[in-house]
Amino acid sequence: MESTALCQGLTLCGIVSWIVMSSCLGVTQKLRSLLQPLVSHHVNNGTPTIVQIQKYQHGFLDALFSALSCVVSVPFYTAFLPLLFWSGHVKLARQMTLLMAFCDYLGNCTKDVISAPRPCCPPVRRIATTKDEEENALEFGLPSSHTLNTVCLSGYLIFPLA
User: Fold this and answer.
1) Selection from 145, 51, 70, 160 nearest residue 102 by Cα
2) Which residues, including other chains, have CB under 8 Å from residue 36's CB and lie 6 or more apart?
3) Could you give the CA distance from residue 73 to residue 132 in angstroms, rounded to a whole number?
4) I need a labelling partner for 112 at 20 to 30 A (CA). Which of 22, 36, 38, 129 fits?
């Protein structure tokens, strides 16, 4: 039990130290100035590929992927995680809450550091089913929160925490 508390204390000290050091040394701005031009170049060069893929559109596929994107969105977890607590699966709910919080935090930190634009619309077609998705489409695009949440959830399902 003491080793867990020590590990958590060291982790917290490491995070606070990183925040102080990175803000004093301007690490975020330096990383952004290195990475943003490279990522923006790839976004612009990849737009024709995205347009080609989107030519194979079908109403059923649009509805399917739109519904699947809702399963890895923040409103879904806001409703789903309390149900796990209320149904008595406290350990699972705690693990899922920490995992989703960590994934969202890591993804948003990466978005802030890279500040990569989304592909221009048009020619790229965006499907937004909710008001939240329309607002999220105005944010930076890399990494995709839906993709990050999908990877984290899939990893959790494949390698369950003990």
Assistant:
1) 145
2) 114, 115, 116
3) 10
4) 129
- Amino acid in position 39: V
Q: Round to the nearest angstrom and report the end-to-end CA distance of the chain.
A: 16
| Angstrom distance (rounded) from CA 81 to CA 96 | 7
Q: Helices 90-114 and 145-158: crossing angle, nearest 10°? A: 140
31-65 burial, b at 16+ Cβ within 10 Å, e below that, comes to ebeebbeebeeebeeeeeeeeeeeeeeeeeeeeee
pLDDT tens readout for residues 77-135: 788 888 888 898 888 888 888 888 887 888 877 787 777 777 666 766 666 656 666 66
Output the 3-class SS for the chain.
Answer: CHHHHHHHHHHHHHHHHHHHHHHHHCHHHHHHHHHHHHHHHHHHHHHHHHHHHHCCCCHHHHHHHHHHHHHCCHHHHHHHHHHHHHCCCHHHHHHHHHHHHHHHHHHHHHHHHHCCCCCCCCCCCCCCCCHHHHHHCCCCCCCCHHHHHHHHHHHHHHCCCC
> Among 89, 97, 114, which residue's Cα sits nearest to residue 149?
97
